[in-house]
Amino acid sequence: xxxxxxxxxxxxxGEKGTEPKDLxxxxxxxxxxxxxxTRPVGAEVLEASGKLVFPGLIxxxxxxxxxxxxxxxxxxxxxxxxxxxxxxxxxxxxxTKPATTSPELLADKLRRAERRCWADHGFFxxxxxxxxxxxxxxxxxxxxxxxKVFMGSSTGDLLIPDDATxxxxxxxxxxxxxxxxxxxxxxxxxxxxxxxxxSVTNHHLVRDVDCAVxxxxxxxxxxxxxxxxxxxxxxxxxxxxxxxxxxxxGDLVTAEVTPNHLFLEAPGCYxxxxxxxxxxxxxxxxxxxxxxxxxxxxxxxxxxxxxHAPHTLAEKAKPxxxxxxxxxxxxxxxxxxxxxxxxxxxxxxxxVRICSSGPARVYGLTNKGSLEPGSDGDLVLVDPDVHxxxxxRWLHSRAGYSPYEGMAMHGxxxxxxxxxxxxxxxxxxxGLARGRPVHRVRT
Length: 443
What we know:
Elements: E1 4-14, E2 17-26, E3 29-34, E4 44-47, E5 52-55, E6 57-62, H1 75-84, E7 87-92, H2 103-113, E8 120-126, H3 135-138, E9 144-150, H4 163-170, E10 177-180, H5 184-192, H6 203-206, H7 209-226, E11 230-232, H8 238-247, E12 253-257, H9 259-263, H10 268-273, H11 286-298, E13 303-304, H12 313-316, H13 333-343, H14 348-363, E14 379-389, E15 408-418, E16 421-425, E17 428-429
Parallel strand pairs: 1-4, 1-5, 6-7, 7-8, 8-9, 9-10, 10-11, 11-12, 12-13
Antiparallel strand pairs: 1-2, 2-3, 5-14, 14-15, 15-16, 16-17
Helix pairs in contact: 4-7, 7-8
């Protein structure tokens, strides 16, 4: 059945600026974007006066825990948190139980997502020593977001700690490979040396700067050798930023940062939030935070990924280092970026660049990340007049906690549209879950 949505009177935000525009979305696709458009006969109207209209956000790094860990999160609850925060597309990581390491396990996730995911989605295949030579055959399967490598901080088959196996992965296929870059031998040695009274306040010292830098140096050497494109996940150190600037590898290496590394800092976050602020790689001191902010401003870091990684409160209450690492965050990306605009170190157009068009370019997502004609009609209305402390009751993650509970809001997403249909409004989902697999440019 044909459908038309008219979005009238809003300030449409793009990479090049913000201007008053109306939008017409027919059958899920933007067909017109201009000032003073006439509402098509029979169109549903979304009144956007006084609102900012952003392209739907793309979160390229989430852990929604299904299958096997649904007590922490599942595809339905995680994607609801996503759509509530203006994230209309997510890419989900493979470290579930079982890990997503084969076409059959990828197909299982896609089946689970049908009629349950509130946002469009793709799923990563995890690289292992056993499947390294097959990944090139599988990377362009429908619904596959690409290939994910854990150089450290993982368990079982998903861990790729050595350069020889990593080189096999990089030589198998052509799509950009997402990399968790921490040096496993150094991690093992440092955890083995932990005293029995270790506290989470030491987390950023245990997983120190060299844990990240050593691995990233190894990775960049292999990238230069193989010429395989990679995407460096959750960059956490000023030293890695300096490496990216110095090596100047262009499109061979893109990189992302989490909001946590931009808004939290050690040691204060551990003193205030305890293990709720524990993640890998860890939140570090202010000098790292400031270097990451600057790198995001000037394009050394390409995009934002939440690394949404929920655990239960009971799990988080375990003594360190038995407490699991991870912070829920898919729903709070946009609110935090709006806070950055208020603080003066980002603009509204920067939000589009790093949260919408940037991740679309990194992963070759067709028709995503823009509100230009021909793009999918994915958008989020932001009310700039929403202020006050963020209430926990607005957040939909099954985790039930956030270090950003109570943060001062400077605008908040109030309506989310997925392919021309309102999916979330008034702090509640609208209609039925209708997310579908993303399409990537085949390489």
